[in-house]
Every structure is written in C-alpha cells, then in structure tokens.
Amino acid sequence: AVWLCIRCCVALSKLELCLAIGSLLSMANLDAARFRAAQTAFSATRYGESEYWTARYAADGGLEAYDWYLRWEQLKEHLMPLLVPAADPEDRSCEILVVGCGSSTLSEALYTEGFSSITNIDKCSQLIEAMKARHQQQIDGPPAGAKGKKPEKAKAPSPDPVPGRPPMTFLEADVRDLPQDWTGKFDLVLDKALLDSVTCGPDKWQNVETAMRSVRRVLKPSSGCYVCVSHAGPEVRKKMILGPYQENATVSADYGWNFTHVTTPRPLINPNIDPKSKEKFELVKSPNYDPSMDVYNIYICKLGEHS
Prior knowledge:
Blueprint (H helix, E strand, L loop, with lengths): L1 H7 L5 H14 L22 H11 L11 H12 L12 E4 L6 H7 L5 E5 L2 H16 L28 E4 L15 E5 L1 H5 L5 H15 L6 E6 L3 H9 L14 E9 L29 E9 L4
Parallel strand pairs: 1-2, 1-4, 2-3, 4-5
Antiparallel strand pairs: 5-7, 6-7
C-alpha cells in the first residue's frame, strides 16, 4: 500500500496526499500522533478549517478557477442521468445545491448545459463575492473590443429556451447548518471534495454526521439525491455516508438513502491545466500501473428508491 501511495503521489494534490497518508496510517493500525513531531510543510495545511480557505482565496482574490479531482467533462456521464428525467431529456428544471463550491468551474458548466436553478454555498465570504462577479462575467461575456482582447464571437443560443433565465445563486453558508427554509427543496446536492475536507478537521465524526443530516434535510424527501465525489474508497467513506456500523448495508438506517458506488479513472493530465497550454504534460503509465486502483470515487445516495 505504501509503495502504491508513493507511485501515485506525482498525480495527487496536497489535499489528496494528506488524506491518502492518513488513510494508510489508519489501515495499518498506526497512531498518526507518533508522526506529528516529524510533520513537514503539510502541517500548515488545515483543509478542515475555514481560516485555511480564507487565506487561500485571499491570495488570488477567489477568481482563479481550480477544480479538485475532476471537471464536468469527467463527471457528465455520471451526473446527467441524475439531473435529467429519462422521460424528458430536455428538462433542465432540477434544483441543484453545490456545497463547498470553492472556485470550481463545475457550476458554470452546469449553467452552460442549461440548468438555472443552481445554488452554490461556501463558508468563505470573499470567495462568494468573487464567484458572483465571475458568474456575471460568464453571463455578460467580455466587453466587445476590450483592450488586449478580440471582439467576442457570437455565442450559440442558450440551451435553455426561456429568455432572460435567472443567474445562479451564491451564498455564504455552512453545510452543517443549512437554512431551515431549504428543507425538502433540492433534487440534487453535489459535493466534490467537501466531505474529504471536513474529514481533515477536528471532531471529524461529529462534523460529518452533522453535515450528512443537514444535507438529508434539504433533499426532496421522495426523490432527492446526494452525490459525493471523493478520493477515498468505500472502506473509508461508506461508514461516514451511511452511518457508523453500516459498512455492509445498502440503505442508510440513519439517513434513509440508498447507497451506490461507482468509480472513474484519475486523469493523467492535471484537470486545471489549460488544454491549449504548451507546458502541459501527461503522466506515463508504468508496467505496474493498475487502473482499477487509480480512480476517484463517486457515491450516489438516493431517497425513495428502497421504499
């Protein structure tokens, strides 16, 4: 396991690497406290604490796009069947909540696909204001003839036929304490790396349970779906998403949702690199490369299917 971790480290972000090391220590029955005195620069990285994210986004004003793990292009085949009813492939009325939105491009991609009822939350107020501004730029486009830019070419018609469709919503909020008036509101809650971040903080088990109950409350009770995109495998995440001592269950006794798990390959190219960049590089598969181990995990939790 340690050899596998070292082999894959070049493809991991700092968050993934920290989490992977923690998982290995846990699986090996080693006390992580023994290694605290020897912690390196990673000791300053506190992904479970708001102060870290506030400082991170303050450094670039919150406008620099960054996607953890995967982009829409890799997630689309898994998410579209959950977003669009099979009986009406043109339906884009799904009420979506993106928790811990960060500076990801995921919501923008959903909006481009025609979904308008998208609410994005994050605990960092500065980031939320920056994302509102970035989304407004997405709607308006750059000014024609702006200095240093060529006039923008005419865009294809919006996939949403309703003229003047509303913009996305961005709000400062904590996933553990979502507004009470959101109870039963959303068709889909999308979490890309938020749960992973929560598990890096203090009191992780209590915070995970509080977050799961909060997410469960805002889902539509008969059809809502929670999707969690994680670096961690089911041996680690299933007991968090279903509840303690339910590793062998498929329906959560605590939250009432039906649990399924799929994987998708880790991109060998950093998803945050501009595809037009000449400086991009691609990792080369070694003879020992095992694609079944080098994956991201997508956990799909649906209400109503088991009743």
